[in-house]
Amino acid sequence: MMTLHSYPGLFGLEDNNPYGLKVYAFLKLCGLPFNHEHGIDVSAAPRGQLPYLTDNGLPLGDSDAIIGYLKRQYALSIDAALNPAQRMQDLMIRRTLDDLYWVMSYSRWRDERYWPLFRKALLDTHPDVTPEQLEAARQFNFQRYHFQGIGRYAPEDAYARGIADLDAIAGLLGDNGFMFGPLPVSTDAGLYGFLANIYYYDIDTPLKRELLARKNLVDHCLALRAEIS
Questions:
Q1: What per-residue confidence (pLDDT) applies to 29?
Q2: What's the Rg (C-alpha) of the chain?
Q3: Fold held by 84-228
């Protein structure tokens, strides 16, 4: 059986990282049986990153690569009805979510207004996680933010970038329910990984306020949650 290795859950979600939750949602949508193991140790992970998937001893990293492998290996039809234009739009949406990721991460680990609340939630929810581990992860993230660029932004500029990402996604989604019609596809699993990690995040950030103001984003999050529950 496959095993999904991902970060610990938080605020009722199966993974507090959007990429891990994306793969989790995809597996559930496709009805693939899998085990789910949580942790923060990346020493065995391809590329040194979570999430990763093991399938019959084969380790697979990167959420997009994992989903691509699963679609080929198990002849999944979840995206079969997408036309060429929709497939290109899917790529652009995934790239937008990659940009949103940095702002979400910034709001948790970097912003001094929200870091203490995030830290407390992790420690309260996961007694096996130590303050020293979190501080080491925080310092590592500071380095990533600096080299990626978001760490050089003023907070209001960082959030403006993430809010623009959410606005673009809301505009593309419209009132269709799911991104390309009444049935969810892998694009929707990706959206859910991010939207749920903002919607269910029990800390009031600019990103959460923006999402709550966008009814179609909230509706999408709740509808996908119902599909995989």
A1: 98
A2: 17
A3: Glutathione S-transferase Yfyf (Class Pi); Chain A, domain 2 (1.20.1050)
